[in-house]
Design a protein that fits this description.
- By secondary structure, the chain is α/β, with parallel strands linked by helices.
- The chain folds into 2 domains: 162 residues, no CATH class; 179 residues, 3-Layer(aba) Sandwich (Restriction Endonuclease).
- The chain is built from 13 helices and 5 strands.
- β3, α10 and β4 form a beta-alpha-beta unit.
- The longest helix is centred in the C-terminal third of the chain and has 28 residues.
Length: 362
């Protein structure tokens, strides 16, 4: 009988879940077989939560060992069966709970009679027969699928639907009163390294500019955009724009992508020059601009347009060190307010909770 490696199963879930979250943040969907969509839709509106959890266990089992027959979730079913209850208790249920996904509190097999097989005869004793029919159709599909790539797509899409399910729920934020500078450094490194569709660096930067404004009582009007909003279409110069008396004081582009010469020229022609912006800042989450970009920026400097680059994490730490205790408390308060905005996906809140938990060893 096949034995499922639970460590491998959990690693598989975590890797695929990150991809599924990225799809949600980028407003895309995994490219699933369109013929499966109706059945996915039915099990995800079913009140029987265990149907979709059973499916998750089945696809994980199939990916870990393709000799498994996913119709046979009890070891007594023979040499191609698997221990679905053990997989659920040790991997599937803890994973769903840890990711704050609405799910069953108990074993998903408890919905069915003991020694159940996933076959047509099973539907007679179930309340939601339509939901089970769709579950069985998807299990049949899995049983006949041996292509590794297609199985991974199936898992990623299934997890994507779980992420969508979580977005309709409420994830409470872990609240922390204060951090040391070293803890901020670790926290920012964690947040900026996680997929967020560019939202984490933007939120952190907006929070800092709001804190500067409040701490020093400046007459700034700070306007910013969410992710996936085109600057040119909205008529602004950057992700964050600071105005004083309706005049642009500073425009900021927060980026996780490489800044090279061609991108700098494009930014100048489409944003900086049309709006006559004299002070433009690239806040960079990771990769430093190359030398050609710096040379091009120096040419624009000579024309009266100051274009500068700085790393987000280093910039944040320097300012937090300068603010002192009062300013850091204000920063924390502003950050919690931003993270609680309706436009912030639940995925971002879960990532925050995980990074704070890692920081304090939880």
């Amino acid at each position: 009988m096949p034995t499922i490696d639970h460590t491998q199963a959990l690693e598989l879930l975590n890797t695929s879940f990150s991809i599924a979250e990225s799809h949600l943040l980028n407003q895309t969907s995994p490219n699933i077989n369109q013929g499966l969509l109706d059945d996915f839709n039915i099990i995800f509106v079913s009140k029987t939560q265990s149907y979709r959890e059973v499916l998750l266990g089945c696809v994980v089992a199939k990916l870990v060992d393709k000799t498994i027959d996913v119709h046979l979730p009890y070891v007594s079913h023979g040499i191609k069966s698997f221990n679905a209850r053990d997989l659920d208790e040790r991997v599937i249920n803890p994973f769903l709970q840890n990711k704050h996904i609405p799910s069953s509190k108990g074993p998903y097999l408890s919905t069915f009679r003991r020694q159940v097989k996933f076959e047509l005869l099973t539907r007679d004793g179930l309340r939601d027969k339509r939901g089970f029919d769709s579950l069985l159709s998807l299990i049949d599909h899995l049983a006949g699928e041996d292509d590794e790539y297609n199985l991974h797509i199936f898992l990623t899409y299934l997890l994507f639907r779980f992420v969508e399910l979580r977005e309709a729920s409420i994830v409470p934020l872990t609240l922390i009163q204060r951090f040391s500078l070293e803890q901020y450094d670790h926290l920012f490194s964690c947040l900026l390294s996680r997929p967020s569709g560019g939202l984490f660096p933007v939120l952190l930067a907006v929070c800092m500019f709001e804190t500067i404004k409040q701490h020093f009582k400046l007459g700034w009007d700070i306007q910013w955009q969410g992710i996936n909003v085109a600057d040119a279409a909205s008529g602004v110069g950057g992700d964050i724009t600071i105005y004083v008396n309706n005049t642009v004081l500073l425009a900021i582009e927060v980026t996780e992508r490489k800044v090279d010469r061609s991108r700098l020229i494009s930014t100048f022609n489409t944003k900086i020059a049309p709006s006559s912006i004299e002070d433009y800042l690239f806040l960079i989450a990771e990769t430093e601009p190359n030398e050609e970009a710096r040379v091009q920026a120096a040419k624009y400097f000579a024309q009266g347009h100051e274009i500068n680059f700085t790393q987000v994490r280093e910039w944040l730490i320097m300012l937090l060190a300068t603010f002192g205790k009062t300013g850091r408390y204000l920063f924390n308060t502003n950050l919690m307010n931003l993270l609680n905005l309706p436009i912030v996906p639940q995925t971002i809140k879960v990532t925050w909770n995980e990074c704070v938990g890692d920081l304090f060893g939880e």
